[in-house]
Specification:
The complex is a heterodimer.
Chain A (H helix, E strand, L loop, with lengths): L6 H7 L2 E4 L4 E5 L6 E2 H22 L3 E7 L5 E7 H7 L23 H6 L7 H5 L5 E5 L5 E4 L1 H7 L3 H4 L10 H14 L1 E15 L4 E19 L2 E13 L6
Parallel strand pairs in A: 2-4, 3-4
Antiparallel strand pairs in A: 1-2, 4-5, 6-7, 6-10, 8-9, 9-10
Helix pairs in contact in A: 2-3
Chain B lengths: L3 H15 L4 H8 L3 H8 L7 H11 L3 H8 L5 H5 L14 H12 L4 H27 L9 H5 L6 H18 L6 H11 L3 H19 L2
Helix pairs in contact in B: 8-10, 10-11
Classes of the chains: A alpha+beta, B mainly alpha.
Chain lengths: 246, 216
């Protein structure tokens, strides 16, 4: 029998889950912004157990809901997995299909294939399932057209938020202009080294910040994506440089 | 009959207890009439045993202890066992410093005294929450001068009131032998900025202690 998807399930599906290194997960609104206090408390009343079960299924210890209360104070609601484990008397937590993101198989398409394959044969599923952060931007405006799930996870941002800007947001403008000229003339760049920025959610500040990164990426020219010339970039290697609080 | 020195001490005590709270809102929490309280504040009241007991109950001491204080035989801090805070000598940069000092001092108390203190704190909080809720719900009277608002106690934000009401609800649950629900604990932990698991464990321990107490 098919399960009905409730409004609550839809609300939970639209949340942004930001995994942290300490086995905790930060929960934000679908647009990457903080909840209002009322919405956060409604979610806790109606779905604390679903959120805790999702954490348990994903191997997280605790979910933190961030909300903005009066006078722009930030409140953090902690939903530890222990609460739900205790509530079901030590049994394994049941899965919640509406919260669990689909586990798409990751393809092992050689990055060189994506770099050299003729454009008409390039499949979107390869990009979507690639374990490498992959981006497509307009050559002319640098507008962001596409970021695969690995790229969005690397920036901890939902697509609506991440794709709203252009590539100048996260790159040094002079270097980016130089890189674009190279892509236009060479058609592809292999293991190109450069520095740029990545978003991360700072749990202490309760907001997104930027961190300086060193990248090695492959780039190729796409003659037409969304009807305009674009560049496709795949990050092969990324390492964090000294963190500056911006 | 009260001598002038006792009347003066009683007056100071009453003024200090009431603070900026309007007389008619404050006196029901003590249980004495507004007229009797006003007379104490103006050093013209009598010392009936009924009202004396109500005042002593409100403070949390016996009538004998209250009389000792009024006669100048001890300080109120001694009677209540309150910590001596150097608020006069050291300029406090933040009110939280005083709160932190009190919490530090509370660590030295045994459990029954601690519970007594928490109960008294809950009563005071209930009074403040009720008072603020009334103030918040009041419709402004265009004929009344706005000075009434200035003399009323400091208004709490809606979010602060919600947090205080939640804390009181959890306390009432606990005192009735119930453990607050998980969503309430999650919200209370966020309001108090403490770990949810720790809060749940502490509340469960208090619940067990109360259960043991009830079973003798």
């Amino acid at each position: 029998m098919k399960r009905m998807v409730s409004n609550l399930d839809l609300a939970l599906l639209s949340l942004q889950w930001v995994g942290c290194e300490d086995s905790t997960v930060i929960v934000l609104k679908g647009d990457g912004k903080l909840f209002t206090q009322n919405v956060a408390e409604q979610l806790i009343d109606l779905a604390w157990d679903k959120i805790a079960r999702f954490c348990a299924n994903q191997g997280y210890k605790c979910a933190y809901l961030y909300a903005e209360s009066g006078n722009h104070n930030i409140k953090r609601y902690a939903i530890p997995v222990e609460l739900v484990v205790e509530a079901i008397s030590g049994n394994l937590p049941e899965s919640n299909e509406f919260l669990t993101p689909s586990d798409m198989p990751k393809t092992n398409i050689d990055p060189d294939t994506i770099l050299f394959i003729p454009e008409p044969e390039l499949l979107l599923t390869w990009l979507e399932q690639s374990p490498l952060p992959t981006y497509i931007n307009s050559m002319q405006t640098q507008r962001k057209f596409y970021a695969n799930p690995t790229a969005l996870a690397a920036h901890q941002k939902p697509p609506e938020d991440f794709l709203s800007g252009n590539a100048y947001d996260l790159n040094d403008p002079d270097e980016l202009d130089r890189r674009i000229r190279l892509i236009a003339t060479e058609k592809r760049l292999n293991c190109y080294k450069y520095e740029g920025w990545r978003w991360f959610f700072d749990p202490n500040a309760g907001r997104f910040r930027l961190k300086r990164m060193a990248f090695i990426s492959n780039f190729r020219l796409l003659h037409s994506f969304n009807g305009v010339p674009c560049w496709l970039g795949q990050v092969v290697q990324a390492s964090e440089l000294g963190r500056k609080n911006l | 009959m009260l001598n002038s020195e006792i009347k003066q001490r009683l007056s100071h005590l009453c003024l200090r207890l009431r603070g900026n709270t309007p007389l008619r809102k404050f006196t029901p929490s003590v249980g004495v009439s507004a007229a009797a309280w006003n007379a104490w504040e103006n050093e013209s009241g009598n010392w009936g045993i009924g009202n004396a007991r109500k005042l002593a109950n409100f403070i949390g001491i016996s009538v004998d202890q209250l009389e000792q204080y009024l006669k100048g035989e001890c300080s109120l801090e001694q009677e209540l066992g309150l910590p001596v805070l150097n608020t006069n000598e050291v300029e406090m940069s933040d009110q939280n410093d005083v709160v932190e000092q009190v919490i530090h001092w509370m660590n030295s108390l045994n459990l029954p005294d601690l519970m007594k203190l928490i109960s008294a704190g809950v009563r005071l909080a209930e009074f403040t929450v009720n008072l603020n809720s009334e103030t918040t719900n009041q419709q402004p009277n265009p004929l009344q001068p706005s000075t009434q608002l200035r003399t009323s106690p400091e208004r709490k934000s809606e979010s602060q009131l919600q947090e205080a009401e939640l804390a009181l609800k959890c306390w009432r649950d606990l005192s009735q032998g119930k453990i607050p629900s998980n969503p309430e604990l999650i919200k209370l932990a966020a309001a108090l900025d403490v770990d949810t698991v720790w809060l749940k464990k502490t509340i469960t321990q208090l619940h067990e202690l109360k259960g043991n107490e009830a079973n003798g």
